[in-house]
Amino acid sequence: MPATKLCFHTVKDLRKALLNREISAVELVDASYKRIEEVEDNVQAFISLTKDLAYKTAKEVDERIKINADIPPLAGIPIAVKDVICTKGYTTTGGSKILENFVPPYNATVAKKLEENMIPIIGKANLDEFAMGSSNENSAFSIAKNPWNFKMVPGGSSGGSAVAVSSGETVISLGTDTGGSIRLPASFCGVVGMKPTYGRVSRFGLMAYASSLDQIGPFGRCVEDVALTLQAISGYDNMDSTSINIPVPDYSATLHHDIKGLRIGVISEMLGEGTNPEVKEAILNSIKIYENLGAKIEEISIPHNQYAIATYYIIAMAEASANLARYDGVKYGHRSKDAKNIMDMYMNSRAEGFGDEVKRRIMLGTYTLSSGYYDAYYKKAQQVRALIKKDFDKAWEKVDLLISPTCPTTAFEIGSKISDPLSMYLMDIGTITANLAGIPGISLPCGFDSANLPIGIQLTGPVLSEEIMLRAAYNFEQSTDFHKANPAI
Ligand code: GLN
Q1: Which of 181, 202, 234, 243 is catalytic?
Q2: What CATH number does the domain containing 103 carry?
Q3: Is there an atom of ligand 1 within 6 Å of 177 CB?
């Protein structure tokens, strides 16, 4: 494989090469930046590159290897970090003009963990503004492109993180998932992406979108790489009051165990009318693969699924409207130059700094929280959220995991949905219920449509079922070749 394509290798192979001194960590970082030079004009996965940081970490790794000291499992492996996660001393924009020049004075807990694990951060990945979107078209800087077809969206909001891995710019990446923003782009770009249980990974230093739904998680080209990355970023953090204080299992230790007798439910609502026939066929084939692996398949209904989009968008926008109140031009971010008084300054700064989708959400969110409408919208949505949670709790009495398409379609054309927010919101039907219920979910490559665009299958499971979920994903991956295909760029 040519030197610029080193990032297409798995973590396991790269680690072996590092420890055998066939390559150095600095060479690996070089390869990542050379690949970025090669493809970045076409794919636009990054908002900024963090070269000093990446080379500093890589040099430390090489020093340790030189003296035969132990290195952590992901030491030296190039990673991209979604630009909504604060990196001390390196611009973090949230994909927004309002934070175009914001340099955080502190690290997010996950960024600190990457540092402790000696994982070189290559750059800050492109995203929809403040993680609001399903296509990456809401980025204030540029639209990331799908490496399988540049005319298509990569999915959002963590589009850049998925593209960086899919196009071999980095080996792994971090994204965030509030309603599907890791799983959807993973599905569209043909990589693996996981949203952990709410609270498993600290949100400290993540710019808040909808705090009761947001979760950071990993992307990789294979399940093992995702398991290793999840391991590195998981764990209790007293800086996040929703952090779960339960030990993190060794995710990769049991990946290769079989899944005989595992009970898998198929969400019946997700294979109905709205699902593209090619996607449906790929999911049905995947179910057969699971049967051959010894899993017991059963149909399961999540009856309140039909209210999920409405429920999610009310709750997410309400929380967003409150979280984004902090961007007022006073403490940080863009401040309007031509304001005559303080009210003008607030209003102009926000009007100039925020993009259209963010403004739409602040307005709708403020409306649903306002007195007189709170009971009709926000409170109702919270009640339906409880019902969706109950649907899942009932499902777990019968099955260990659930299967559904990650998204009812494959990647769509850039520009085709941007002026129709409702059709864009519908892309999240397969993913948002997991966020509403706080449960983990993973998307895996499971086929291609007739236009050679990747199809993703999603597994969801009860709270803290990551270990069994990763094992089920690994078993599927080992019996298929979809994850081995790379885009021809
Ligand atoms: N598409 C969803 C939204 O726009 C999900 C975004 C996300 O998960 N960050 O809210």
Answers
A1: 181
A2: 3.90.1300.10
A3: yes
141 lies in some domain: yes
End-to-end CA distance of the chain: 14
Strands 263-267 and 401-405, by their bridges, are: parallel
Identify whether 157 is a catalytic site residue. yes
Mutate to test the pocket of ligand 1, among 178, 417, 420 (most ligand atoms within 8 A of CB): 178
- Ligand 1, closest atom to CA 177? 8
Convert the pLDDT of each residue in 403-413 to its tens digit.
999 999 999 99
* Residue 134 included in any domain: yes
Atom in ligand 1 nearest the alpha carbon of residue 435: 8
State the Cα–Cα distance between residues 466 and 439, nearest whole angstrom. Answer: 9
Q: How far is the CA of 161 from the centre of ligand 1 (A)?
A: 14
Containing structural domain, residue 13: 3-258+476-484
Report how far ligand 1's centroid is from the alpha carbon of 131 (Å). Answer: 6
406 within some domain: no
Q: What is the pLDDT of residues 123-182, one digit of tens each?
A: 999 999 999 999 999 999 999 999 999 999 999 999 999 999 999 999 999 999 999 999
> Active site includes 96?
no
d(CA 240, CA 230): 17
> Does 82 participate in catalysis according to the annotation?
yes
> How many domains in the chain?
1
